[in-house]
Design brief:
52% of the residues lie in helices and 18% in strands. It is of the alpha+beta class and 410 residues long. This is histidine kinase.
């Protein structure tokens, strides 16, 4: 495939956009990880101070009340979800958990208490804490040991998931930015192509008119002689007029009218095969009556592009077949253009319709892309129906039929 400069620049732009996104993501993750570690260390220290203050309250019951009040104040100022258990695993104390629940049996509570007896809740919280952090051990004067478990505060938990939320927002922003920039780029390219096309049509107008005049002069000069060559020249000049008219209509929505498809295809095939190698034969088959809404000049261009591609795919002798059929039930018309050329790998069946894709050394890779757009203007679709390497390819155009199928009433 030939790689054109604008496709290379587009790929380069995508690479830098991806690199920019990766740098933002990496910086965000590293910085957030640093904050998480710092906050986690701070909460560990807070948990240790809370455990020490609890140990002091339990181990020094006879200390001055004012000092005990100070220790209580220090402990209560350290807000952190925590549970204290015996070595056996029995829960002794908890804090900053659901204030409406308790693991103390109602028989030992005040009958007026609104607390809900819910031991599974505390077991679940304890299991979560055991997974979060290693316990802090408290040694009492009587030789008993308690274990303090805790889990991250709400702020730290939210900070852990923040980078993923941030990365999601960055991804959404980049997708939107890419879509907008791509749209602007495509719009600018389309404006350039439209301007060039209209200018080409304008430039072709004068020499075409001059050639028509010279043909009329040649006919008058050689009146009465065999004018078959002049007839073919006139067909070519009229063809140039059609091409100029096509280019002048690029960028505008074509007007559609009801046409017999077989007649339009037949006219172009008859014109085209005379100007193609005699080693390539043409065959037109199928329904000769089906009608669809078309713009003759634009649809003619579609057939031209597909036939030229078919001829280019044939190396040496070959055959091109155009078959027109109708699916009455779906109210659709199928136009199948088949060749006996080199075929297309299945992996490229979609790629060939992208701008810039070509297997030829000479060519811009715009033929099939433009063809797909023109088929779209006819409210139809085009795709590779089948293809086999070394045996050929069949393109199918699907158009809406003018015929409306009405099922028979029983």
């Amino acid at each position: 495939m030939k790689q054109h400069p604008y496709r290379y620049n587009k790929q380069q732009w995508k690479f830098f956009l991806f690199l920019f996104a990766a740098l933002i993501a990496a910086a965000s993750l590293l910085y957030t990880n640093y904050l998480v570690k710092s906050l986690s260390k701070s909460e560990r220290t807070k948990a240790e101070v809370w455990a020490m203050s609890t140990q002091s309250i339990v181990s020094m019951p006879d200390v001055d009340d004012q000092f005990i009040s100070f220790i209580y104040a220090v402990r209560d100022s350290l807000s952190l979800p925590a549970i204290i258990t015996k070595e056996s695993g029995d829960i002794i104390f908890w804090r900053d958990l659901d204030s409406t629940k308790t693991n103390i049996h109602p028989s030992t509570q005040d009958s007026t208490s609104d607390l809900v007896y819910d031991p599974p809740y505390f077991e679940k919280q304890l299991a979560r804490m055991k997974k979060s952090h290693p316990p802090i051990q408290i040694s009492l004067d009587n030789g008993e040991k308690w274990l303090v478990y805790y889990h991250d505060s709400k702020a730290l938990s939210q900070l852990r998931i923040f980078p993923y939320i941030q990365l999601s927002l960055i991804a959404v922003f980049l997708i939107v930015a890419y879509t907008v920039f791509n749209s602007i780029r495509d719009s600018e390219q389309n404006l350039v192509w439209v301007g060039m096309a209209k200018e080409a049509a304008h430039q072709l107008g004068t020499p075409i008119s001059s050639m028509m005049g010279w043909l009329e002069l040649a006919r008058a000069t050689y009146e009465g002689r065999d004018n078959s060559l002049l007839d073919e020249m006139e067909r070519d000049v009229k063809r140039l007029e059609i091409v100029a008219d096509r280019f002048s209509k690029i960028g505008s929505t074509p007007s559609l009218s009801t046409q017999v498809i077989y007649k339009i295809v037949e006219d172009y095939v008859n014109y085209f095969k005379v100007r193609t190698s005699k080693r390539v034969t043409f065959e037109l088959t199928g329904d000769q009556q089906v009608e669809a809404k078309l713009n003759v000049q634009v649809f003619d261009w579609i057939i031209e592009n597909l036939l030229k591609n078919a001829v280019n795919a044939i190396e040496g002798e070959g055959k091109i077949t155009v078959n027109i059929s109708e699916n009455i039930a779906k109210e659709e018309i199928f136009i199948d253009i088949s060749d006996t050329g080199k075929g297309i790998p299945r992996s490229n069946w979609e790629t060939i319709f992208q701008p810039g894709y070509t297997t030829r050394q000479r060519g811009w890779g715009l033929g099939l892309s433009l063809t797909k757009r023109m088929v779209y203007y006819h409210r139809g679709q085009i795709f590779v129906k089948e293809s086999e390497i070394g045996k050929g390819t069949t393109f199918r155009i699907v158009l809406k039929s003018n015929l409306r199928y009405e099922p028979t009433q029983i």
